[in-house]
Amino acid sequence: MSNPQLDKEQTYRIALALEYVGASYSGWQKQSAPQLNTVQHELEQALSKIADHKVTVSCAGRTDSGVHATCQVVHFECKIDRGEKAWVIGSNSILPPDIRVVWARNVSDDFHARFSALFRRYQYVILEGKVESAILAGRVTQQRPGLDHHAMNEAAQLLLGERDFTSFRAAGCQSKTPNRNVHAVSVTRSGNFVLLDIQANAFLQHMVRNIAGSLLSIGRGEQDPRWIGQLLDARDRGKAGVTASPDGLYLVGVGYPAEFNLPDCLIFPPTNSPPINNPPINN
After folding, report:
1. 65-111: per-residue pLDDT in tens?
2. Taking the domain 119-251, which CATH number applies?
3. Per-residue pLDDT reduced to its tens digit, 45-55
């Protein structure tokens, strides 16, 4: 969508991809309370300096407080095209070190970071250990050893397809519908790390963290894998598991139609999970 302040003159639409560590921020979305720092606020401040006018960005997905990203995609409009390298290098010279622009591309006026997206992909990283890691604090969710990742993966397959995810949406979620289409999901293990990898057309507020909380209950043996199906049928948030910590959650991919020719982003942490192909556009 265009910026009304720029409608009367030629403008350029730019798409950016970001990496950020969410631990120091009150989520992605800019807040009215000035003491609450957000990723969007930091980015818009930097871009406005480079563009020499106020810049407002639209994002692919609003991450919660404490949630990280290796591939958050945004777009904005500006009066002057500074060039793709300038948007990357210039922004990163202003941004704090825990936020980085990965790439920039000129895009057509019909591109929208949110509404053009075919899917979002998240990974939830769990580290098992008797002692909590100092190095990975805030970057992973830490659990005592013994999670049954096979049971968690079996349960996760019940999430596939177009379903009502009322049992996994936050009470304050403002989406008009609880329905979402999960394209792929897996729970795998690599040493002491257990990884939930999930891709859908879109996600409800806290949806991945609420799913992770319930899968952790299954992994600890507190519930049977079939419980996930029962929760979906119940359509009752109060019956599902607790909301898992944001520490281990990463937005790692946003998919767009090939016509926009946007680069891929880093998937971090590296995993043995197979790549998930773009779904058909009508999904």
Report:
1. 999 999 999 999 999 888 888 999 999 999 999 999 999 999 999 99
2. 3.30.70.660
3. 999 999 999 99
Domain residue limits, the chain? 7-116, 119-251
Q: Looking at the chain, how many residues does it have?
A: 283
Q: Which two tokens stand for residue 95?
A: 């941004």
CB 15 within 8 Å of CB 74: yes
| Cβ–Cβ < 8 Å for 68, 21 | yes
20: which 2 tokens?
């950020």
Hey, what CATH topology would domain 7-116 get?
A: Alpha-Beta Plaits (3.30.70)
**What pLDDT score does 281 carry?**
47
The C-alpha torsion from 99 through 104 and 109 to 111, rounded to 10°, is -70
Selecting among 7, 52, 64, 264, the annotated active-site residue is: 64
Tokens 């210039």 — which residue?
90
* Catalytic residue check, 64: yes
